[in-house]
């Protein structure tokens, strides 16, 4: 077996996906080492989630830099410094610039709380609210490779959940979150196994 995949995490929120990923590592369902959490929000719940698991935290807030570009360069430099092989966005509130995406081309993943390409281009809880507004009967989550086009990179995997009568943004979000917590660690393990490739702009999973 080769060396363990070095996983960088980027998150801004409460960190339930980071929690699920770290649990999968602990339980050996995900053969990876979480080498760093980059967070752009002081006080975000995810910071404590990482610290409790012994994962180094790099706080890289926009306000600490003269420009958005300087912050993005700092994000790239942190991921490089920790030698991340793969980067997982888990509720990261900023869009990544080409300076980051280009440095880790094809090696950055994101999880989106809808079945892309539906409800692209907005952050939670907006996709869940839009699903209710439109009256769709199924929604879910998508793990995709990050490219310069927001929410439009190759789709690696999706999980569906029903939208039920009487659902609120909260109840639908909770159902989608539960699906995310199963899907994301699984997809990361596929990457650790080297099973995901991109062919003509589409992600392919080898058996
Ligand atoms: C999730 O809904 C994810 O799909 C979106 O941001 C949310 C993050 O939630 N990208 P959490 O911080 O992991 O609980």
Using brief descriptors, characterize the structure shown.
binds 5-O-phosphono-beta-D-ribofuranosylamine, 34% helix, Rossmann fold, two-stranded antiparallel sheet, 6 helices, seven-stranded mixed sheet, globular, 9 strands, 207 residues, alpha/beta
Average pLDDT reading = 97
Oligomer: single chain
Query: Number of domains in the coordinates?
Result: 1
Which shape, going by the Cα principal axes? globular
Account of the 3D structure:
This protein has helices at 16-26, 45-52, 68-81, 98-101, 126-134, 169-192; strands at residues 5-11, 32-39, 57-59, 86-89, 108-112, 138-145, 155-162, 196-199, 202-205. The chain is of the alpha/beta class and 207 residues long. It has one domain: Formyl transferase, N-terminal domain (Rossmann fold), CATH 3.40.50.170. The strands form 2 sheets. The chain has a 7-stranded mixed β-sheet with strand order 3-2-1-4-5-6-7, with helices on both faces. β4, α4 (98-101) and β5 (108-112) form a beta-alpha-beta unit. The mean pLDDT is 97. It binds 5-O-phosphono-beta-D-ribofuranosylamine. 5-O-phosphono-beta-D-ribofuranosylamine binds next to α1, β5 and α6. 5-O-phosphono-beta-D-ribofuranosylamine binds at residues 11, 13-17, 90-91, 111-113, 124, 141, 177, 180.
């Amino acid at each position: 077996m080769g060396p363990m995949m070095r996983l960088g995490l980027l998150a801004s929120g409460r960190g339930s996906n980071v929690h699920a990923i770290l649990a999968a590592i602990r339980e050996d369902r995900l053969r990876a080492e979480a080498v760093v959490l980059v967070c752009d929000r002081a006080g975000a719940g995810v910071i404590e989630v990482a610290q409790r698991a012994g994962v180094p935290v790099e706080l890289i807030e926009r306000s600490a830099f003269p420009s958005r570009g300087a912050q993005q360069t700092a994000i790239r430099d942190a991921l490089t410094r920790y030698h991340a092989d793969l980067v997982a966005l888990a509720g990261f509130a900023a869009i990544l610039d080409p300076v980051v995406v280009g440095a880790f081309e094809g090696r950055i993943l994101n999880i989106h709380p809808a079945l892309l390409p539906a409800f692209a281009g907005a952050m939670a809880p907006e996709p869940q609210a839009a699903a209710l507004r439109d009256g769709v009967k199924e929604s879910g989550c998508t793990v995709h490779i990050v490219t310069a086009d927001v929410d439009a990179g190759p789709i690696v995997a999706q999980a569906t959940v029903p939208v039920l009568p009487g659902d609120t943004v909260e109840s639908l979000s909770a159902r989608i979150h539960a699906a995310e917590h199963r899907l994301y660690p699984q997809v990361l393990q596929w990457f650790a196994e080297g099973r995901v490739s991109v062919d003509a702009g589409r992600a392919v999973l080898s058996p």
